[in-house]
Each structure stands twice: as structure tokens, then as C-alpha cells.
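User: Structure please.
Assistant: Input sequence and predicted structure:
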Amino acid sequence: MIDLRLLRDNPDVVRASQLARGDDPALVDAALDADARRRSSLTEFESLRAEQKALGKQVAKAQGDEKAELLTRTKHLAERVKARQAEASDAEKQLDELLYGIANVVEGAPPGGEDDYVVVKEVGTPRDFAAEGFAPRDHLELGEGLAAIDTARGAKVSGSRFYFLTGIGARLELALLNAAVDQAVSAGFTPMITPTLVKPDTMRGTGFLGSHADEVYHLEKDDLYLVGTSEVALAGYHADEIIDLSAGPKRYAGWSACYRREAGAAGRDTRGIIRVHQFHKVEMFSYCDPEDAAAEHQRLLAWEEAMLAKVELPYRVIDTAAGDLGTSAARKFDCEAWLPTQERFLELTSTSNCTTFQARRLGVRERTVDGTTRPVATLNGTLGTTRWIVAILENHQQADGSVRVPEGLRPYLGGLEVLEPVA
């Protein structure tokens, strides 16, 4: 949740963030009202409690009619104490609900919606297939030719947007994700195989049960959620803990299966494995000092770009507009690879600075030099997913339907240089 002190001292900053996201700024005023009512009720409650204690001492010393009168006053006072306590409790519940409804305060993101991103830079040059004398095949045609992707049997077994990666397709995914883990380890990350089912408190704490709740699979019988990213489990890893960041950020790289309902994506990228219900991903996650969060964000982006260089893809980096940010993100950069057959850029990675938003919800703190505690900052970033196979196949294809293996992946495929079509 957002910092309550920020809400009180700088409500206009929070209102501006809400407007930039396209969210309701009236939530800010409602939260301030609930906070004022809570504090007023608590003040009155504490005053009445003090009076009640003083009266109790008088009752102990009084006798006869005086004691009877004091007992009557004590009874009425107890009712008022109970009423003020209930009012404070109700106001606190309302405040918590309202605070959970306010998204993280935007920090530096451009204004606007999904199409109002800012291109930070472009790296590499897309191939000119016409100059090479052939029309590019899409990733599914290539994958089927390589006996690497089977969507027909995926649909038969599990329904639409499911698939099998077979043979070299399975090996290619493992190569990509193992390369991502190796890069993460070399950068000081601790590799983690994370749970893919989490409790409601963990899912809610990371911000995925707000406006994006319809994208999440929920197992009602067990009251558990399937994660759409290992970010969720990694954010909950240190929940309700005081962690030591004196040696620098705590960095984890989570490998997990990921599940997304894609409820709002009907008709978009339904061919192949671009937008699917299940995939694998290696995700970076960092806990750091709030003052270091912006610099850590740039470091995560640099590690993502290093992975893209390993697989030799032309890409661009965009600064995502405020209206397209997730609930927890204060700022987000996406790396998008060029997709030849669709002549557009396809998102492969995202890295988000969630500032102290998730840590406040989950109770992750650090101890400061003066002995007090405060929330830490959390950040996340993608190092590799199943979707990368789409861009790898299309950008490195050859006229005969074979695919050149990027040099950065060859050691993970036994030195294989070319993926050959299967007769």
C-alpha cells in the first residue's frame, strides 16, 4: 500500500498519480476522511479510557450513595468507551480497504495509456528478408517444421492457448532458461525454484488481486492462487521479516511455471505460443534500500539487455506510460523484440520498480541506523520466458526453414549451430 504519511502530507501527489493512471482520485479524499475519523475516535477513546481508570479508583474508595452514583457514571462511561472503540475499528477497516484500492504512486513514468509509451532506445537492425530473397515464416510454421511446437495436441489435451514443446523445442526452452539462470548467478542472484500456488495474502500483498484479478487462476476449494510470475512467491519469501541489507540488495532469480487466464485478450495473438495460459520464466527479484531503488531498476534493465544480446535479437526499450502500469509498479521499462512476420515489436521482458508498495503490504522491513524499522523497496525483471522462442525462431530463420542457433545458446545445446527441419 502507499505510505500513509505521504497521503497525509502530500495528497496532491497521490491524486496526480491516480489521474495519471486513469484511476479515481476521489479515493484519496475518502482515505483521508477515514483516517481523520479513525484518529478522532482513537483520541476520544483514549481520553475516555483515562477518565474510566480515574473513576475506577474513586469507586474503590467511595461508599453508600456516592459509590452508587459513581457506579452509574462508570456504566455510562463504559458504553461510550465501547462505542468510540468500535468507531475507531470501523474507520480503520475502511481506511485499510481504501488504501489497498490506491495503486502505487507513479515515479517518472510518462503520462497516458497503453499507446503513450516513450521509446528509450533501439538496439540492432531488423533483417531485410526481401533483400535475402525469401518471405519469413512465422514462429508456429517454423516450430512445426522443426517438430518443436505442437499446439494441436496442446488444445486436444488442455484446450485453447495450451501447447507442447517437443524435441528441440523443449531443449531450446531449457537452454534459454538455463542461460538466464547462469547470467543471474554471475550477477550475484540466488537461484530459486519457487512455489506456483500461493495464499491469498501473498497474492493480494503483491498487488495482483486488484484490477488484474480476472487474470489469475483461483483454486476455490483450497483457497490458493496459481501465480502468473515467480515475483509473487519471491515477494512473499521475506513477508513479516526484518531483513539485513547492510551488504547491499538481496537478489533472487526465480524459475517457475506461470499461469495466466488471459481473460481480456480474446482474439489477440491466438496463433502459436505468443499469448498462452501456461509458460516458464526466470524472474529477477530484488529487495533494496528505497534510496537505491531507481539505480537498482537500471541495473535490472541492463541485465535484461545483456540476455537479449546473448540471443542476438533486435529490440527496443520503452518507458511504459502511467496508465499502463500494474498496480504495484511506480515505473516500468519493457524490452520488445522485433517480430518479422507481424512487422511489430513484441514484449519479451519487463522490469518494474515497486518502491515500498509491496513491502508495506507484506511487512518486509529493514532496521535503520537509529534502531527503527522501515519498509524496503522491491523490484522485479524478466530474464527469459517461453515467449522468447517466438522471436528467436523468426529472427534467426533461414530460407529452407532451418534456424540458426544464437551463439549465446549453443553451449546449452551441445554446441548445436543450426536447428534443422524434420522430414
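The radius of gyration is 27 Å.
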